[in-house]
Fold these 2 entries.
Entry 1:
Amino acid sequence: MDLSFTADEEAFRKEVRDWLDRNLPAEWRHKGVGGYREEEETDLQRQWQRRLHEAGWLKLAWPKQAGGRAATPVMQAIYQEEMAKAGAPIILGRLGVSLLAPTLLVHGSQWQKDTYVEKILSGELIFCQGFSEPDAGSDLAGLHARAERRDGHWVLNGQKTWSSGAHYADKSFLLARSDSEAEPHKGISFFLVDMHQPGVEVRRIRQMTGGGEFCEIFLSGAVVEDRDLVGEPGAGWMIAMTVFGFERSGLAQAARFERAVLELAGLARERGAGSDATVRQKVAQAQIEAHVFRLIGLRSLTSAQQGHAPGPEASLTKLYWSEMDKRIQETAVGVQGAYGVLAPGSQFAVEDGRWQYGWMWAQAETIYAGSSEIQRNIIAERVLGLPRGR
Ligand SMILES: Cc1cc2nc3c(=O)[nH]c(=O)nc-3n(C[C@H](O)[C@H](O)[C@H](O)COP(=O)(O)OP(=O)(O)OC[C@H]3O[C@@H](n4cnc5c(N)ncnc54)[C@H](O)[C@@H]3O)c2cc1C
């Protein structure tokens, strides 16, 4: 493991910081980072995306021939860390930018690359992800949505669920079964579906956080042209694996958790819980875990920098941070005593209820991008070599 940064990496860090100083207005900091106000903040996230795109940051990791900077994994981690430290908003089209655009570079036709990639990066086209179904989440290969060839195009029927941001998306990258005779993994195709058409209905799912950023998508005769089929018919599962590779290789954000622990310590002191031995131990434990998380991140970075593709040990990182965040948020709600039950935005809620929101949201973190149980299965079988469970 290499714990030091080179002079070039330190110079890159300064470049990011200087750019942020010039381009991230004070009133945008710590806004638009998700939360129960997300509905008021989509404009800000769209504007921020445009600004990042114009400055070339959204192509940081891309090869130079595709207009990127071919940034090393360490540079990408520095970029992420500086964005988190500055409290930069998240971008509205994050699924398109981080998952679909790089997948199209690998599997898309020239027409798809020319038509979609720049528009995805600039935020002109917002994509959502239509993979999960009511009976197909962890077991995604069991999906039922059907795609049939009819009158020279594809006709889609079925239901998708948990699609983040589908209510403001222009298009969806979506999996549907195009061959019901083939083995489950082989009969799936990958489509780019126009969300603004009569055969697509989106219904928002109201969550316990008060937000409604997830949606159900009902497909009843939705039409997709051939040019919006990515890869060959039946290649959808292989293309989805590329998407998952980008989803799970998200670089660790130790800074986010280190800041959360400092804020937790401040909250505990302010609520008069700082002298409670149990609280002190929980806060100290959180500090240790956040530090260990930084070290795990540096180990993964060293491996990535040496050219190793992220392997099943990416599951360790996902499992570790999502379970750690749940504990941090739970402690923060606990130190508020009876105030801990006040909903975000309530008149007497501590810090406007942001920890309560964080606790509720953290419950989702151990589900998306592979639940904790799925990560443990992967670690057991592919890292520890234990026999496959039934
Ligand atoms: C915040 C968030 C955002 C999301 N955004 C999107 C999106 O934009 N697009 C999209 O398509 N989907 C999205 N999802 C859906 C997500 O991919 C699924 O929730 C996830 O794959 C789990 O599937 P499921 O909810 O159907 O649970 P299930 O797969 O039904 O699992 C239920 C429980 O059983 C456990 N379990 C399942 N299989 C096994 C096994 N083999 N061994 C042990 N335990 C098992 C799980 O761990 C879980 O505890 C999102 C989910 C969340 C929480």
Entry 2:
Amino acid sequence: MSEENIRKKIEEALLEFEEEELAKILRDSINEGVGPLKLIDILTDVLRDFGDKFESGEYFLPQLVAAGEAAQGAIKEVLEPALKASGEAREPVGRVVIGTVFGDIHDIGKNIVGSMLFANGFEVHDLGKDVPPEEFARKAKELNADIVGSSAMLTMTMHEQLNVAKSLENEGIREKVKYIIGGAIVTEKWAEEIGADGFATDAVEAVKIAKELLGVM
Ligand code: B12
């Protein structure tokens, strides 16, 4: 199968939210000798394209979310093990720990940010939703993360973003990591108030800021 064909099939599977079909396409391509790194490049390129189409209004949010989830599932199931086996793993541009703050179960935006960071070469450790502040700090320390990102969608839970900053201090890693925040209620003023290194109102901006903070082009 040519690269163009693989891309087309991946795109179709993502549009149909077919995680199993996607996994099959990736497995078949690997069996035909296509490297897992190449497949990640194709897959992330398709995801980036979906992101652009969402921004321009061509695709809708559920498509973006479902595509992101299907891609993440297939990457974990097929590509990550294949990469490990082939020894082809590349150095990530940075390591990110991300999650939705304690008391908050909104995770659609956070998942999109995670997918986009992954698509742009970051190693992403997603802690999920309703994550206690200490967990962000503990995981960031354990993994020697470069960036910690927290998402908050409720007025009621935004103070937890401050608690994450405090936990990073308590763990003694606040100076070592860049802390970025996001979510519908987050403003530049709030980011400044809690001493965050950056904030973003969408996933494209989040990638831009993450790269800038690490000096990656
Ligand atoms: C979907 C949704 C839900 C779903 C969540 C499903 C899920 N799996 O996420 C459900 C139904 C569960 C839900 C529940 C509730 N919700 Co709700 N929900 C929404 C809704 C409609 C959309 C949110 C969304 O997904 N937006 C789309 C994504 C793509 O945008 P985003 O989240 O903003 O993310 C982008 C950016 O913010 C940024 N970003 C996000 N995270 C991060 C992280 C980092 C590090 C960075 C850099 C950037 C970044 O990039 C993202 C991608 O572009 C909003 C309304 C709205 N318009 O925001 C209300 C809303 C957030 N919910 C609200 C409320 C009140 C609730 C409930 C309390 C309702 C209730 N009475 O039970 C519960 C809370 C439960 C809880 N404890 O969390 C209010 C919050 C009001 C406020 N100011 O506090 C809102 C604003 C609705 C409203 N107008 O009243 N909700």
